[in-house]
């Protein structure tokens, strides 16, 4: 998979949009104050990365995680 695809993103100011971010590329998130930049970076993209990382861990190892 060469891109991160998120569909129907809805979080705080972000209202139901699709997002396709290429992997191994520099991306920039810009916008006016209150437009959802931090929400997109931390509450959407970062959390999706955490979710995918945890899914990749073998179930026998997961029981040792907090």
UniProtKB/TrEMBL annotation:
GO terms for molecular function: ATP binding; DNA binding; nuclease activity. It is found in: Cytoplasm. InterPro entries: P-loop_NTPase. One of its GO terms (cellular component) is cytoplasm. Transmembrane segments: none annotated. Keywords: ATP-binding, Cytoplasm, DNA damage, DNA excision, DNA repair, DNA-binding, Excision nuclease, Nucleotide-binding, Repeat. Gene3D superfamilies: P-loop containing nucleotide triphosphate hydrolases. GO terms for biological process: DNA repair. Belongs to the ABC transporter superfamily. UvrA family. This is UvrABC system protein A. It comes from Desulfofervidus auxilii. The lineage of its organism: Bacteria, Pseudomonadati, Thermodesulfobacteriota, Candidatus Desulfofervidia, Candidatus Desulfofervidales.
